[in-house]
Amino acid sequence: MGRQRTKPAPTPPTTTRGRRTRDALILAGREVLEQQGWSAFSPEAVAQAAGVSYGTFYTYFESRDDLLHHVVRSVAGEMLASSLASPDVVDDPYAKLVESNRRYLRAWDRASKVLRLVDQGAAADEALRQIVLEIREFYVGRATKGLKRLQDAGLANPDLDTRLTALALGSMVEQVAHARSSMEEPFDEDMIVDHLSRLWASAIGLRGAPDEAWAARADASGGTASADADGN
Amino acid sequence: MGRQRTKPAPTPPTTTRGRRTRDALILAGREVLEQQGWSAFSPEAVAQAAGVSYGTFYTYFESRDDLLHHVVRSVAGEMLASSLASPDVVDDPYAKLVESNRRYLRAWDRASKVLRLVDQGAAADEALRQIVLEIREFYVGRATKGLKRLQDAGLANPDLDTRLTALALGSMVEQVAHARSSMEEPFDEDMIVDHLSRLWASAIGLRGAPDEAWAARADASGGTASADADGN
Amino acid sequence: MGRQRTKPAPTPPTTTRGRRTRDALILAGREVLEQQGWSAFSPEAVAQAAGVSYGTFYTYFESRDDLLHHVVRSVAGEMLASSLASPDVVDDPYAKLVESNRRYLRAWDRASKVLRLVDQGAAADEALRQIVLEIREFYVGRATKGLKRLQDAGLANPDLDTRLTALALGSMVEQVAHARSSMEEPFDEDMIVDHLSRLWASAIGLRGAPDEAWAARADASGGTASADADGN
Amino acid sequence: MGRQRTKPAPTPPTTTRGRRTRDALILAGREVLEQQGWSAFSPEAVAQAAGVSYGTFYTYFESRDDLLHHVVRSVAGEMLASSLASPDVVDDPYAKLVESNRRYLRAWDRASKVLRLVDQGAAADEALRQIVLEIREFYVGRATKGLKRLQDAGLANPDLDTRLTALALGSMVEQVAHARSSMEEPFDEDMIVDHLSRLWASAIGLRGAPDEAWAARADASGGTASADADGN
DNA sequence: GATGAATGAGGATTCATTCAT
DNA sequence: GATGAATGAATCCTCATTCAT
């Protein structure tokens, strides 16, 4: 029971001004992280981006890592929120898939920079990595259940493992969202969403999907495969 | 007439021993990066991991970044090599797809740690990021051509944009390879390769693929879609 | 069993040069502490006093506190060593007392600055405070046993509690040693040792001590005490 | 005619409430210093301990050092006051000695933490160190005069230097008072006062002191010293 | 070549003090 | 007066790089 010399955790601001400064720091932290990356994420840079002196940083955050936690929670929360806030009125499975992919794509687009940084840079911080895993789990779990329901309704290929399929197709969307920003591909959002949805639907053999016609014509084709499936 | 006081660029080692030390440093650098991440990637840690003294590091490399370049080139080279060194004797498109996916999965499995780290950590270093892009381009380009050939042969859905499809499906494999190590999913390699290949094949509507039977039965199903495509 | 990101404890120097630098830093640390006090005891100041750059400080010590530990152990070790290295040939108790007091006085004179600083300044560091207590215990314990032997031999007042008496008289010597440096008293060492020894001897009623004559004449004095024992 | 831009020296509080806040800050400062030491003695910690906001601190004190001065003066004043406020009705020198020691012990017990802290921590602040010296001087001077009077009255050993003796015995009491709190000795106040007084009395050969009988029997003892005066 | 000690710019953090409300 | 947010000089520490042996 030795007296602990703990640094007093910064108290939440009591005044409006304080709250505004604090929020500005979290926002600035996110922007620095997204735009300048890990190495630029210093208290000084963040404070400057927020327009306050770096001493002020420590009025609100215990450390650089403390701010990182707040930034990640903010990004994660926003991402999950944008998924939950779905009207979801349509009844058509394919239309729902399109809508879902569009939201996922957008959400990852905003969040991917920060979340991937965390996925690797904050190797030592298990708590943060956990947040990233939870987000993935949220989406994969939901897609898994969705696929199960489709299979049960006879609307999707019942031979596929629901979880692994959901993981793979979710991975596709996630990685495309990420690649969009680093590659300079010319595809616009609509085109991407369209393709992702069609690929997803065909992959699980969704009944009523756009490319079903091609697939259904399969038996008519008597030709033997003669070209490469892959160019290697 | 002042002589330039340039740092003597480390000469390539002339002796066998020198080459061995140099290779040990590159290998150690890769392992440190893979296992301990960015923050542990210091000349000191790498030298220690290679079993040489700190000073020796600078006998072979100009700087920390110099080593990083060598590590990345080593990883990238190995990855491309493993793809090119394929006998490729089979003629069946699906079998080729399976083989290709297996190799891609394995290659990314090994390389993904380093390449993703580079993708973000070395934001400032254009040369490095270029290497990562080139690797992706290599695979996406190849898959694009493969898909084109299949479409031309009437073996794949011709309505899909070849490049975007290749990008999306390649992304799927890449991201699953990455997720395997961070998530603790119970799937073994064979199962993953099997699913990825089937999903890929169904997605492009490959003739002769395992799940074609399900897809072909589509017209028989008169049912209206009534379940969610996705659980959101 | 999460991987600990522990700072590698600086390895002991392997070369002569390294050992010399390290020793110079410990010595400089002690001098800074003695001459400029707590607030000047910074890695930078110590490094400068030792004639090296402040980066070198961290080649040998983990932190400011790490150096402090070394300094204190060095001071404490030296103090105990100077006490143990005693020829101790005399047989006369009073002569032994004088010799003992002289050594104690000298030892504290050198050590008191550092040890008192630790006694208070390093409030949080229990390990350091323990060292100070051990030193006191060493002296008090020894004096306690010495007094017991004298009492048993009929050479000292048997009514005194040995431990409390040893503590009190040891305290006297310790505090006088300290006061010497802060006050500008004109007393030289011989005079101080002489008085401390006589006071100590008289206090315990040591037979054969210099002031015994006065005490023995007590019964001759029939006068009633009429003056103050203390001026308050 | 530029107006001097001096910091407005905090005015002594005019209102009752103001005085109370100010006193609370001084008291809190003392408590923080005594219980948590130098490193915790910050305006923020003191303000918090006093139950006021950080900013208020500077309403009453120019600086941290300003408060320290007030705290030290408060402690010193209280210590001196407790000595002066002595009825001092007894006539017996030994009884007076006991009473004096009891008061000194108690006073140092309370004051020693702060005064020792000042003795070292405020090495640069001559004014503060002066206060500590003055307190010692007050006690030593008084004891010196008391001893002189006893010697003149033939009640104490005339061979002792009055000042050095007073310093030594005063040091004994002071250091025992300090050691009481840091060591976990089981001695209660009465026992300590009793021993200190008897040691003090015997040391100066005070006529009529409790242990005089032992001392007076000295001539009867013909034995030669044969045991150690000290265990070293 | 190899070694490991030395260097110091740079980054994180603290905290006494000032200032706007 | 009281409040608590804002400030930035000062300090501890890290680590890529250089250098003497």
Describe the structure.
Chains A, B, C, D: Residues 42-61 bind DNA. Chains A, B, C, D: This is TetR/AcrR family transcriptional regulator. 4 copies of one chain form a homotetramer. With 232 residues, chain A is mainly α. The first copy, chain A, folds into 2 domains: 10-62, Arc Repressor Mutant, subunit A; 71-208, Tetracycline Repressor, domain 2. Chain A has helices spanning 16-36, 43-50, 54-60, 64-84, 93-121, 126-152, 162-182, 189-204, 212-216. In chain A, helix 4 packs parallel to helix 6 (126-152). The longest helix of chain A has 29 residues, at 93-121. The radius of gyration of chain A is 23 Å and the shape is elongated. The N and C termini of chain A lie far apart (66 Å). Chains in contact: A-B, A-C, C-D. Chains C and D meet through helix 5, helix 6, helix 7, helix 8 and helix 9 of C and helix 5, helix 6, helix 7, helix 8 and helix 9 of D. Chain C binds a DNA duplex (21 and 21 nucleotides) through residues 7, 11, 13-15, 17-18, 21, 42-44, 52-60, 63-64.
